[in-house]
Fold this protein.
Amino acid sequence: MTPTGVMPPSALPRRRHGLPPRRRRLGLLLASAVLPLLTATLVAVRDEVALGSVLLLYLLAVVVSSLVGGIVAGATAAVASFVLANFFLTPPYHTLIVESGDSIITLLVFLVVAVTVSVLVDVSARRQAAAARSEAEADVLGRAVAEPLTQRSPEDLLAEVSSTFGLTSVALVEGVQETLVARVGPDAQGPVTLRVPAGGNRLLLGAGRELFAEDRRLLENLAHAASRAVDVRALAGEAERARALAEVDRLRAALLAAVGHDLRTPLAGIKAAVTTLRQPDVHLEARDRGELLAAIENSADRLTDLIANLLDLSRLEAGALSIDLEAVSLDEVVSRVLIDRQLYTAANRVADDLPLVLADAGLLERIVANLVDNAHRHAPGGSQVTIDAEAAGGTVRLAVIDRGPGVAERDWPRLFVPFQRLHDRSTDTGIGLGLAIARGFTHAMGGTLKPSHTPGGGLTMTLGLPRADIRPDPAVNDQ
């Protein structure tokens, strides 16, 4: 990117018709300095040196002038050498008349050879410039096509155009209204100096120096490459949206498959129990009536938990989770969860003198409830779920321990994926949202939730939360 009003130098050499002006001027200056000096030197010894040797020295000067200044300097030096040699070094001296036929032939051959050398040097310079430009064009096109278009943005290719052709601003537009698609450099301060078709209804517009006809072919190739990059970016966006829609469809299908049974089962239980209670011709004992009412209550609790989990997941997915961090007592939260869940067999080892943690009380209760429910669900019959806690630096860790079958370490990431159930395919064990919601709530509060193996078998879920009275240490939280 270049400042406004500053024209970047072109990285692409031009095909030249001969040598550059600076070289031509230098060649003429060299000829005008060397030929008089050489003539003065030869005049002093002209009676001792043959004309052929004199012309060879002049030819050397012509060759040097041609190498430096090209055909203009070489031809000028050749003609000047011919005149000087004839006037000062060929009898009769100080006249252009030549008395010997051999001398005439020698001078004419010298003139032809000198001019021929000048032309050959100029042709060589022209070919060298053409080869340099062809190499530069190949390098530019190679950079444009070497990398996949998915890895190069339209702006990258427009920047290539700007640096290659020395343009201050390059833009890709489309349509009759010339709607801007991509741009590099500042807005053009003056009129657009070039308009190149870029394929379809797109144009490449540039501001800066005027370009030569020889630049058009390469410029059109780069313009089409930039246009294709726009199409590729649009296709990549469509593919990403398609993947997102496919993921939404997958989640919907999983939700319907998982929730369908979980909704029908408690509803069917409630319906059956209520139907039995409402039948006037059926006499129920107090114990039977109590069992039916308990079944209704349990089914309603299952529905409540299911709906709460679905709502929590939707809040996490939508980023609409509201968090109110405050100092919270872990032992009070754990005791309240165990009482609400009627898990009187769980071993609560959370001390009441632990430091307070910085958390949202409502979310923390949901996290602990989900962890305890998950551990209780997978604990073998009669085995206890243990809840322990300890303070470590600026973090308080709460561990929920079960003695169930455990989970292989390679499957730990799947524990936190919604609608995933490990080791079983039955929907009686829930729809696989508890741990996903627990981790989402934990991360939202700045905590950590990690699984580990229980010594002797089982799974331990460790919740790490920052202490309310100490600034949290990220190094400790990550442990």
Q: What stands out?
A: Residues 1-10, 422-431, 474-479 have pLDDT under 50 and may be disordered. The two ends are 45 Å apart (CA to CA).
